[in-house]
TrEMBL record:
HAMAP family: RadA_bact
Keywords, comma-separated and alphabetical: ATP-binding, DNA damage, DNA repair, DNA-binding, Hydrolase, Metal-binding, Nucleotide-binding, Stress response, Zinc, Zinc-finger
Protein name: DNA repair protein RadA
Motif segment (RadA KNRFG motif): 263-267
Free-text function comment from the UniProt entry: Plays a role in repairing double-strand DNA breaks, probably involving stabilizing or processing branched DNA or blocked replication forks. DNA-dependent ATPase involved in processing of recombination intermediates, plays a role in repairing DNA breaks. Stimulates the branch migration of RecA-mediated strand transfer reactions, allowing the 3' invading strand to extend heteroduplex DNA faster. Binds ssDNA in the presence of ADP but not other nucleotides, has ATPase activity that is stimulated by ssDNA and various branched DNA structures, but inhibited by SSB. Does not have RecA's homology-searching function.
Organism: Rhodococcus artemisiae
Ranges where the record places region Lon-protease-like: 363-462
Matches recorded under NCBIfam families: sms (TIGR00416)
Length: 462
């Protein structure tokens, strides 16, 4: 008889180690390792014996494998949610049997958005019923929000439950075509150890809901919490279990909200949908470029316009800079909406390659308009011209859009999708463009000047 071996298993993440330690090396939880017996399996000494035993122990499947040509792909075609901006991020709509995780900070509008989704879903037809399960609020609280946002419908069913088995019972009774769970961290599986929101519980609940979606074909939308660093709360395997991961982003000082795709098995990732959170609910913004531009009648120094790419969508953004002489031996570098490392690099290139002196003796403030976050290197040229415009107190000519990545040698490099960027700028009334050399796809009617280095680009100021 084989000798019993002892291992130690973490009660939070189920990670096993051979010896007891005070802290789990996988999830970092203290005092979570418990002793567990392990019966080692018999190991065959020869490969032939292993194959023979594997064949003898094989179990014939109840459902045989089906040739790929016989599988009907129309049954898994995406269905529209009724919200075009969300459909854009999802890749055309919700795929039957898929599991979508929507994560975001508290108060950003996750529940409001999905309440609008179940309302639009119920309006599709008499056979479309949606079930909204909430473990964070009471049924009365959800009804108040539905009244305020106009999301009340007779085919929207509401259940204030946190027990997983009871939720499955509601699914059997209602037979919905869409299930929303708010949130996955508040659900509890009674037959699984751990507290609600713990690593073990979150994995078990998500696995059970995923199995439900695949077996029944009901798409499931999960609301998830995020950590203080902005990552999805819970185990990393949570993102592997679901089909789509969306991040709901927004500044508490702004009404603009953006749904960004992080993982998508049915479409392109990094797509972005734009919304505006108002007192009457959440409203989709189909043309958000105007939100990131400051419309003014007079010319102002220290501003420049660029075009960034969020997924496949070109967005116009305005970069502003302010340069002020200071007596402080350590000048300030205040950055908002831009990458501070790239701002510091552009300042160094301007001083070293373009002979823009005394930047090291000035406070420099750089920001974007409308709460836009720009990490695209193609905004380097707009940032550089905004800084020089502020130093010289000479505005960039109106109607000019700037595209290009700046290198350490002062060269201006090409950017991807320049044609689509310039077309979007021309649609919004911009008539001039400063772009890197050999840029193709410029729209007819737009005057484009190609530059090879930052010095040539600076000639467009004044």
């Amino acid at each position: 008889m084989a000798r019993t071996k002892t291992i130690y298993r973490c009660s939070d993440c189920s990670h096993t180690v051979a010896k007891w330690v005070g802290r789990c090396p996988e999830c970092g939880t203290w005092g979570s390792l418990d002793e567990a017996p392990l019966q080692p399996a018999a190991v065959a000494s020869r490969a032939g014996t292993s194959l023979a035993r594997a064949g003898a122990a094989a179990i014939l499947p109840t459902t045989p494998a089906t040739p790929l040509t016989r599988i009907d792909g129309k049954e898994t075609a995406a269905k529209s949610t009724g919200i075009s901006e969300l459909d854009r991020v999802l890749g055309g709509g919700i795929v039957p049997g898929s599991v979508v995780l929507l994560a975001g900070e508290p108060g950003v509008g996750k529940s409001t958005l999905l309440l609008e989704v179940v309302h639009r879903w119920a309006q599709r037809g008499a056979d479309d019923r949606s079930l909204y399960v909430t473990g964070e609020e009471s049924a009365g609280q959800v009804r108040l929000r539905a009244d305020r946002t106009g999301s009340v419908h007779e085919r929207v069913y509401l259940a204030a439950e946190s027990d997983l088995a009871t939720i499955f019972g509601h699914v059997e009774q209602v037979k919905p075509t869409l299930l929303v769970v708010d949130s996955v961290q508040t659900m509890l599986a009674a037959d699984v150890d751990g507290v609600s929101g713990g690593v073990t519980q979150v994995k078990a609940v998500t696995s059970a809901l995923t199995s439900l979606a695949k077996a029944s074909g009901i798409p499931v939308l999960l609301i998830g919490h995020v950590t203080k660093d902005g990552a999805v709360a819970g185990p990393r395997s949570l993102e592997h279990l679901v089909d789509v991961v969306l991040h709901f982003e927004g500044d508490k000082h702004s009404t603009l909200r953006m749904v960004r795709g992080v993982k998508n098995r049915f479409g392109a990732a990094e797509e972005v949908g734009c919304f505006e959170l108002t007192e009457g609910g959440i409203v989709e913004v189909s043309d958000p470029s105007g939100l990131f531009l400051q419309h003014r009648n007079e010319e102002v120094s220290g501003t420049a316009v660029t075009v960034t790419m969020d997924g496949k969508r070109p967005l116009l953004g305005e970069v502003q800079a302010l340069v002020v002489h200071t007596q402080n031996p350590s000048p300030r570098r205040a950055v908002s909406g831009l990458d501070s490392a790239r701002v510091a690099m552009v300042l160094a290139v301007l001083e070293r390659r373009c002979n823009i002196r005394d930047l090291g003796k000035c406070d420099v403030y750089a920001s974007t308009v409308g709460g836009m976050r720009i990490t695209d290197p193609s905004a380097d040229l707009a940032l550089a011209l905004a800084i020089v415009s502020a130093v010289r107190d000479q505005p960039v000519p109106p109607g000019t859009v700037l595209l290009g990545e700046v290198g350490l040698a002062g060269e201006v490099r090409r950017v991807a999708g320049a044609g689509r960027r310039l077309t979007e700028a021309h649609r919004l009334g911009f008539s001039r463009g400063v772009v890197p050399r050999n840029t193709e796809g410029a729209p007819s009617g737009m005057k484009v000047r190609e530059v090879t280095n930052l010095g040539q680009a600076l000639m467009n100021i004044g």
